[in-house]
Amino acid sequence: METRALGDTGQESTVLTFGSIALNWLEQEGANQLVELVLDHGVNHFDVAPTYGDAELKLGPKLRQYRDDIFLGCKTQEREYEGAARKIDRSLDRLGIDTIDLYQIHGLEYEDELDTITADGGALDAIREAKDDGKIDHIGLTSHGNPELILDAIDRIDDLETVMFPLNPVVAGKDGDEYDYEAVLERCEAEGIGTLGIKAFAKGSWPSTDELAEADRPYANWYEPVDTPEVIRERFDFAAAQSLDTVVSPGDPKLVAMVLDAASRSTGMGEARQRALIEEARHNDSPVPEQLHH
């Protein structure tokens, strides 16, 4: 599988990152088999978080077995020092490892969160301390929120090394600064910050719970995904063509094999087809929740 430099981190990541939340829905044996399948396709970048149920525990056995082959990203939703320090140690314990390769501030959505994170006694202090102690190697950020907030975070966190954000034809077709993730991509490229794309396989928001109960959703995703091999391949090719360093696989294990196949077979996508996809998606629901732009 193709690899790309993850910004200036020194890591060469496969163009597909395994979204390890998918392991949460499986028993341990199934989780082990899925990790083996991912590794068999050459994927070397995995992403997990303590909020993903038992995903850290399910990933642990194979992560330890193949530790040298996996660049691991983990995350925290904690915004203050004490909580973040505890979560780093908890994740290390649950994963059964000594060092997390990339530790990310998870789900930044609001300006006041950024104020807390970057203030004295904020989560960033704990993350930097953990880096000094050898518990983590690189510092990142993830956000589904306003691109302008991500750009502000880049300004304020001078040791930020990666950013994870949504990018797909639906989002690319939306007008307005609140959807301008391309500006984030350009800024990251200019500054040597690694980029990870999420929601590449999002079709749109799920119907309201009045129309479709959460328990009845056919996929364990926060959004309704595309789910045929042809469309999955097209979505992967689109995301990879946006010069993202790596694209994160969707959260439902039923989709992982199709995404692995798409990433393994990818031959790129020309600009004309990219523009056509954006036009086709222009009137679709954005899978980036509206409330996150407020």
Task: Write the SSE topology.
Blueprint: E1 3-5, E2 12-14, E3 16-19, H1 28-40, E4 45-47, H2 55-65, E5 71-76, H3 81-95, E6 100-105, H4 111-118, H5 123-132, E7 136-142, H6 147-156, E8 162-166, H7 169-172, H8 181-191, E9 194-198, E10 202-204, E11 224-225, H9 229-241, E12 246-248, H10 253-265, H11 271-281
Parallel strand pairs: 3-4, 3-12, 4-5, 5-6, 6-7, 7-8, 8-9, 9-12
Antiparallel strand pairs: 1-2, 10-11
InterPro entries: AKR2_Oxidoreductase, NAD(P)_OxRdtase_dom_sf, NADP_OxRdtase_dom
Domain NADP-dependent oxidoreductase: 16-208
Organism: Haloarcula argentinensis
Essential attributes:
294 residues; alpha/beta; TIM Barrel; 8-stranded parallel β-barrel; two-stranded antiparallel ribbon; 12 strands; 40% helix; disordered C terminus; Aldo/keto reductase; AKR2_Oxidoreductase
Task: Note down, in words, how this protein is organized.
This is Aldo/keto reductase. Residues 16-208 form the NADP-dependent oxidoreductase domain. InterPro entries: AKR2_Oxidoreductase (IPR053135), NAD(P)_OxRdtase_dom_sf (IPR036812), NADP_OxRdtase_dom (IPR023210). Pfam families: Aldo_ket_red. By secondary structure, this protein is of the alpha/beta class. The N and C termini lie far apart (39 Å). The protein has an 8-stranded parallel barrel with strand order 3-4-5-6-7-8-9-12, surrounded by 5 helices. It is 40% helix and 17% strand. It contains 11 helices and 12 strands. It has a single domain (3-285), classed as TIM Barrel (Alpha-Beta Barrel), CATH 3.20.20.100.
Task: Briefly summarize what is shown.
With 294 residues, the protein is α/β, with parallel strands linked by helices. Helices cover 40% and strands 17% of the residues.
